[in-house]
Amino acid sequence: MLSRLTRPQALAVCALPVVGLLATTVFAPLPFSVAQPGSTANVLGEHRGTPVITISGAPTRRTEGQLRMTTIVATGPDAHVSLGDVLGNWFDSERAVMPRDAVYPSGDDVKEIEEHNKEQMEESQDAATTAALDHLGLSEADVDVKLRLADIGGPSAGLLFALGIIDKLEGDGSGGDLTGGRIIAGTGTISTGGKVGAVGGVPLKTQAARRDGATVFLVPKAECSDAQAELPKGLRLIPVTTLEGAVDSLRALETGKGEVPSC
């Protein structure tokens, strides 16, 4: 025979499953990744002791300034991200909570993702080389370009690779540097035809860029609003849609002649 519970006792008993459910929800894994600003690398210089851009078959020039590609660092695809982690990082301007599928291909394990990112980087390097040499009117049959960026994957350095090749071969076309001696950072995919594409994670990349000394950031035009959302003080945004447009904007910025677009 069951004894009858008082109202407070009944509420206490009923609350136990609710507390248990909340605890389970807070600590259960969720399909999110927590990202933060990652490293940057100057494509005009060396990365881990190795030149990022090596060119043979055509005379190259000594460059001043920097062109820094940017990255983000995210929790791994197999990481345990709970509701507590999501809530704890949601309002942190130096962190971003992103759907895991937006960071990693859905259903892939760590090894498959690493291989996928490596393939994307290689494709990006090939596209950047083609776009840059076409822009300069040079043939890939005569000019050999090697791009090396160890331990960094994905396609988002394409624009900076292409600009780096152009700066090493031609500069601004008038004897000066495409960078104007500045530290310029940016992000964006590149097609063989020179079209710049969106990449994601831009607010975190602008923070990485400013942390490492950049004063100008080249951003795919489609991601202007994202870049403005958490724009660090002292960093100027220049929207781009094509490689040619990016080159024109940098020349205008250096010479003070012509229009430099803004977000």
UniProtKB/TrEMBL annotation:
Q: Which InterPro entries match?
A: Lon_proteolytic, Lon_Prtase, Ribosomal_Su5_D2-typ_SF, Ribsml_uS5_D2-typ_fold_subgr
- GO BP annotations listed: protein catabolic process; proteolysis
User: Superkingdom of this entry's organism?
Assistant: Bacteria
Protein name in the entry: Lon proteolytic domain-containing protein
Q: Name one GO molecular function term.
A: ATP-dependent peptidase activity
Q: Which Pfam families match?
A: Lon_C
Lon proteolytic domain: from which residue to which, for each copy? 153-237
